[in-house]
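Appendix B. One record, verbatim.
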Amino acid sequence: MTPFGTSRPAEERAHDAAAGEGPLPSVPPQAPTPLGRLVATVERLRREVREAHAAADGRALVELAKGILMGRLDCTPAAAARQLDELCREARLSPLELAADIVNQAARDQVSAVAAEFVERTANPSPQAASVGVRLRTAESGVLAAADDAQAVADSLLVNALTPLGAVAVAVWAAAPDGSLALAGHAGFASGEAPRWRHVPPGVATVARAALRERAPVTLADPGRDGLPSIGHLQWPDGGRVAVPAGTGGRLHGVLEVCWPHPLPPLQPQVLRQIEALAELCAHTLDTVPLPPAAAPEALRPDVSELIDLAEGLHDPTIVLTPVLDPDGRLADFRIRHVNSRFADPAGRPRGDVNGALLLEAYPMAGGGSGLFDTIERVHATGEPFRAERMGLTALVGQIPLTSVADISVSRHGGAVLLIWRIEDETARLANLLQHAQRLGRIGGFEENLATGAITWNSELYALHGLPAGAPPVPLRDLPSSAHPDDSAALGRFLRTVLRYRRPASVNLRLRRSDGILRHIRVVAEPVLDASQRLHAVRGAYQDISAQHWTEVALAAAQDQLALTEAESAERNRLALQLQHAIMPQHHHVEAPGLRVAVRYRPAETESLVGGDWYDALVLPSGLIMLSVGDVAGHGIEAATGMVVLRNALRGLAVTGAGPAQLMSWLNTVTHHLAQQVTATAVCGLFDPRTRVMRWARAGHLPPVHVRKGEAQAFPLIDGLLLGALPDVTYAEQEVRLEPGDTLLMYTDGLVERRDVSVQDSLAQLLDAVATGPDDLEGRLDGLLTDSWSDTDDDTCVIGVQVD
């Protein structure tokens, strides 16, 4: 039977054949050699030895069943043998299967429980359940026959119980109190593998160590992937492993580790229960400490008596504990066998009320959040001692939990556990805490007895004064001689309040130390009165506040500088806004023949950021009308200054009579060479009132919008690089003939630009708004500004032109 209910693979059948458990595979005939004959002889002898052991284990199981029949039927051995043969014929079972059933019925132990569980969980229970019972009982017989030989136990477990599960090797590890592991028995590994793993030092991570640490079975489906080494990992690098702690009575004596040659699928619960039952059998072999008779009281055990003598010699409170098991043999609690003479119960109970009680009854909080019971249980199970500083011990006093802080030591000695604790002295702890607080806060304490003149300083106060530890302390009345002269008045009021009026007081002063260093000190003092209400002493503290003083000075200076900077920034922005509004009024009317011109300027919503947008409408000496709109990149005084330079430059260049393209080229030269680090966009048009022709050019700016008979469209884009990008740029120029009633709009991007919409979509929205707007020019511009859906908080300039 395989552990997963499937046929065994070919490689396992070949392994069994090589081990002598099946027919050998056919190989080509070879000429015998002396070495080959010797190997064959050794393998044959090994196979015969294994068969003999298996037969002996089986006979031991049958003899055990005969003994049970003799006890129940009160018959002779011969009659029991005949009865067993008759039962085998009637039940149609082999003697081994029937013997396993008889032992299971009589024992009612873990092995029988595993067999019953297998029957309940298996769809076809009869043959498999019988096989499980036979295998486990046969293995148990081999373990009992070799109870003092872990190597023989390993051989018996592999042959009788683990090989049918597909396992190829088994290792029995013994756990030492120091945390190390020793290979007590092994079977199935290569000849040179066991010596390499005889001893595993503490702290080395292995599969067995993980099971011992977790105190639970550990299954590694693929150890090569999981990265935990162990015995045989070179033989089967991808083989699965199962490690199960082996323990009895709450104590872990070692680990049973089972190896498979291939990765493991998830183990069935009944298979894992079988391996746990085998681990419990191993625990009886690994338990080398002789146990006293069950009737003997535990207090008379030699290890407990020696531990009591040891506890009486200790100066700290000590408790000797022994395990208490439930009917199933599992650890349930610990019995307090002895408390030493130094014992002081946290709840205030006498020693007699605690001695002899169960640990969880005497200290129920130990099983709660403190984790003390779990710690004792782990030490008892593994043997590894436990040390901890400042651990909380909680006891119930009148149903009120009272927690004390203590240093804990837990160690196992034989079958008993020694618990030692040292309650931290609360007075010393508070004094130590106060000392650290004074050192961190640079606080020195003092007390001055006015009747005797005795003065007490702590070490920090000597450091504040810059005096050695053995120097005479400075009396409170002599403090003015060590202070700065400017602090004399405040120090006098302080001394009168404390010494004459007998009231607590404080004062800040500059202390001149003997080493020439000036420290800022705060002195706090209070009077101490005797029974007659007369001034007896003064006590108080000095605190070094030099760092705080200079921090406050630096903070005040920083606040003054910040206020000055804010005032300068506000004044600068105010002047820039005044300059911008003086040049660019929000409403401006331009008189031009043949045209009605209206302009609008809307500053940014954030008044602290002045912008660089501009507009201009100018009648030139030639009779042409120049219309322009521009936008200097950025905000602030630099952008406003650049805007003034470019607007005035364009006005001066337009007087020359050059066309829009030439004007843009010259303005680009001005931007690139004369204005530092400025870039801008602009659009410029020259309108001839006589011919109604508009010549225009652009430098990276949005095109004008033309409205005729309720339809709005943008001028087609023409080439034109933004101003200031390159030194020499040629700009294109176009002509548009306007008709009476036409409207022309020139604007900056603050009218249409949005962060989440493309420029094309924004321009389309503008065309729809212009087409549906009022015919009146002033109303149309006001409507555009009111309904603008721009979200960039930028300046906006708009020029509207209507042809008469």
